[in-house]
Design a protein that fits this description.
Shape: globular
Structural class: mainly alpha
Helix content: over 70%
Distance between the termini: 55 Å
Strand content: under 5%
Oligomer: single chain
CATH architecture of the largest domain: Orthogonal Bundle
């Protein structure tokens, strides 16, 4: 009987180890989503501080038990767009000192604001034209026009797009 108790204790240990691994995997997955959401918000706002504010606002209202990571990502995007729509101060179109973005993404920050926002939401984040239009208070035709204009100004990104842009975000 002692052997079966020891076996049961090992099972409990393995079960708790499995739960710890699952929790680590979930934590890593959420961290990846937050990183992707932060980068998206930074590209939308062209401002790291505003991107951080968008992430914090989304995290405060996110229910990790009831909503998936996609809801967190969308919450960050919505918060970033709200910041864009309410911000009256001049935006820094360059990454802040000390940040290291790939040259392709630095080029995105140099685009005109509406062009950049449409490009980020439509091309990099993969939102539908209708979803972008709702977020940016445009019509879907304008969203696609701005996104296409951005692609023409960013030929190196157009080449990456053919290979799959997912690695950038």
């Amino acid at each position: 009987m002692a052997a079966s108790v020891a076996f049961a204790a090992d099972d409990v240990h393995l079960l708790s180890f499995g739960m710890a691994v699952t929790k680590m995997q979930t934590t890593t997955s959420v961290e990846n989503t937050i990183g992707k959401a932060f980068l998206t918000a930074q590209l939308l706002t062209a401002n790291a501080e505003q991107a951080e504010s968008a992430v914090m606002a989304a995290l405060e209202s996110w229910d990790a038990t009831g909503n998936g990571e996609e809801a967190l990502f969308h919450g960050v995007v919505n918060a970033a767009v709200r910041l864009i729509n309410t911000d009256v101060s001049p935006r820094n179109s360059q990454p802040e000192q000390g940040e290291s973005l790939p040259p392709e993404l630095e080029a995105v920050l140099k685009l005109a604001p509406r062009m950049r926002q449409c490009f980020v939401l439509r091309i990099l984040a993969g939102f539908s034209p209708q979803a972008c239009a709702r977020l940016l208070d445009l019509d879907s035709r304008q969203v696609d026009e701005h996104a296409c204009s951005a692609l023409k100004r960013l030929p190196s990104l157009d080449e990456h797009r053919a290979a799959g842009l997912e690695h950038l975000l």
